[in-house]
Amino acid sequence: MWPDQLMPLLKIYFDLSMPYKDISSVLANDHGINIGERQLERLFRDFGLQRRNYTPLEEVVEFIKNQLAGSGSMLGYRMMFEKCHHNGLVVKKEDVRIIFKELDPRGVELRQSHRLKRRSYYANGPNYLWHLDGYDKLKPFGLQYV
To answer: How far apart are CA 146 and CA 141, in angstroms?
Structure first.
């Protein structure tokens, strides 16, 4: 069966939101067409069928601008990404990070300066130095330090 003849079948199963694995098995069992999942992905891409329709970046930029004008100015890009998703915007986290960096470079710089700073230790050997940071990973084994 040629791809243009296969297209109506694929469209039906795609519109039913069936996973690629299920579409592949239905095509094999009901229609005698053996197509792998990767080939299905390629066919869907070639026919312009996408599972994820991203929100136009102009809308995302406008939303982030509005958030930065209000209480969202204290948020990092990860929380802003979550806020976008809660408001129905489908966007990549990397896009939010880049938009954030363009719209609020000073805020990004300030948030980056508070990153975790690793300590450097120089010890004479293994288990010579223990750092007591409040994480009781030894407590389940009966070792407690006060």
So the answer is: 15
